[in-house]
Amino acid sequence: MTPLLLALGASLAWGVGDFFGPLISRTLGVLPVLLWAQVGGVASLVVAMTIRAEGPAGWGVLYAIGASFGGMLGLFAYYRGMNTGAMSVVAPIAGVSAVIPVIYGIATGDDPSVPQIAGVAAAIGGVGLASIEHQEGRRRVAAGVGLALLAACGFGFYFPWMHAAGQVDFWWASMVFRTTALLLVATAVTAGRIDVRMSRRNICFAALAGIVDTVGNVLFAASSQHGLVSLTAVLASLYPIVTVLLAASILHERVAPLQRAGIALTLTGVVLIGL
Fold it and tell me: N or C: which end of the chain has fewer CB within 10 A?
């Protein structure tokens, strides 16, 4: 039961971080917020690792480098999607990333249940409905859907790599992941000559979002010690529920009835995949 609780804890942390991070990036910019978020995450891990005072348990923690490439691609697309579309639409679509670790689990020997197969079908159908926006008597693809699907792909490939690294040493896997993420974002900022200067208050907000996101990384990596990737990854992918609830309560977002049905179907699919 402990791996499942850790994975659920990761979904809670990610749901909170992936609401407030994209929210402040709407005014401060995606890359500046992502950079300070990585700084906050690395700093928090440096403190934790100093207290722990132990070296890595094996070279397998380097699998987290692959996780970082997928995770940061997903996070960048997710932030951009949140800037162009409704959070309550983008988040559930990104949550379909759960399909990828299930497919990976099947390929490596897992035997999916009937509910899991139904969940995959429901999630795909839900994405289709959530993607359709009704506007001025016609329907079109909702803003941010393409970026949400790209985020789903990036997050999906994060899970198997981070699961493998977490099985070796979840603390060092998290450190390798976050350090690589910082280097990737810093490279993008340098290449694009992006101005990342902001007030101390905003830096603290961005760093806090990164710390919360890092807590999610640590919890998911820890769940990998004894849990199957096809199960822990799906439970960790429930974070859109938290994001949708925050968007509804704080931003009072409204979406069309057909999109609401798609969101509900997508979230139902994610839950079924976890059974």
Answer: N
